[in-house]
Input
Amino acid sequence: MKRHIIIHPDPRLKKECAPVTDLSDSLRQLADDMLETMYAAPGIGLAAPQVGELTRLIVLDCIKDKDDTPRPLIMFNPQVISSSEETNVYEEGCLSIPDQYAEVTRPSEVEVAWIDREGNAQKEAFDGLWATCVQHEIDHLDGKLFIDYLKPLKRQMITRKKVKLKRQRARA
Ligand SMILES: [Zn+2]
Output
């Protein structure tokens, strides 16, 4: 089932999410729903708070070419365990901040540990777009958005636009 994506500004996007302690069927269902929601958007990553669930869960798939095999990843309690000194600049966007893009500098390589859909511990190194995406999504679990890396003026400008968008949508 597709879920509704929350648009910034919203207090739920600024909260620290709680770790998963018991991998229940309802959490697996939430993860599957989030993948469906992400692919439909379309997007390459989605974090649970973006659908109003304050749980440490993200999904991602950075395979953009539709001729390539998809690689949906479900991560419970994802954690960056090491990051490169080398950085990368990517123009980031966010499904909760539609139509706004900005360059963000992050470590170009990160090693991430997480619990998969079956409850197994996983660990993998990511680079390129995958590295940026996984860091962006993990930030969501700590109430952090990509615009928080921007200068205050730019951040305020984007936020004002989204306030206006939400007002328009509420009226429609
Ligand atoms: Zn995002």
